[in-house]
Design brief:
224 residues, alpha+beta, DUF3395 domain-containing protein, 3-stranded antiparallel beta sheet, single chain, 9 strands, rod-shaped, 4-stranded antiparallel beta sheet, DnaJ-like_C11_C
């Protein structure tokens, strides 16, 4: 929008609309001479009309569009997470017998036995994590996934961006209260790996960040 004022042109308002590489213009003659009232109307009325259209039409439409986009993105993420979960659970089913064989072999010689391992949005200050039974929870059981990685009573996983890419792992859905501080006993807003294991007949426990390396056993993990 532009307004042109002059003794030869009077008061003229020009409305412009750009669509891609094209520009549409509509000139409006408000007055044939320099009329102060026409100047005021030519300036104030379009601005007022723009404000009304923006607030009553464009802003509600934009808010609805953004909400629909967020909803579609959430549905897409949920669908992708469900697919990865199904793939991981299938892998866990295939590795179950191998994990049991490894567990029995390690136990027979006092080696490394993964008693319990959970991955997800854990409350980092709790002494005992209770694994939820709901498969769509924010914490998943990865005990067998780690046991099959035990080699000669040792388990090593290099540091990485996330452990969700390990066989049998997947990224669980964050809990609704993930924004709550873990110091209050609520779930953390980052993923962790909790491992309870037995080595040489002694109980051990360690809580690791998602990107931390895993090296078992270690004396400092022993439970007093």
């Amino acid at each position: 929008m532009s307004i042109r004022v002059g003794p030869n042109v009077g008061v003229r308002l020009k409305l412009s609309l750009s669509r891609g590489n094209q520009v549409y213009a509509m000139p409006i003659v408000l007055s044939e001479w320099m009329d102060p009232a026409a100047i005021v109307y030519g300036t104030a009325v379009p601005l007022l009309a723009y404000a009304v259209v923006y607030k009553c039409i464009y802003a509600p439409w934009l808010a609805k569009f953004q909400q629909q986009s967020r909803s579609q993105q959430s549905d897409t993420e949920a669908s992708g997470r469900a697919a990865r979960q199904a793939e991981a659970l299938s892998a866990q089913s295939l590795m179950r017998q191998s994990a049991q064989n490894s567990r029995e072999s390690e136990r027979s010689r006092g080696g490394l036995v993964i008693d319990r391992a959970v991955y997800g949005y854990l409350a980092t200050n709790e002494a005992d994590q209770q694994l939820p039974s709901d498969s769509s929870s924010s914490v998943i059981d990865v005990t067998d996934c780690l046991q099959i990685l035990v080699d000669q009573s040792h388990l090593e996983i290099p540091a990485s961006l996330t452990k969700a890419d390990l066989p049998g792992f997947y990224d669980p859905a964050p809990p609704p209260s993930s924004s709550t501080s873990s110091s209050t006993g609520a779930a953390s807003d980052t993923r962790h790996l909790l491992i309870r294991y037995t080595f040489n007949g002694t109980a051990h426990s360690v809580l690791l960040g998602d990107g931390d390396s895993v090296r078992l056993p270690q004396r400092r993990h022993a439970v007093a």
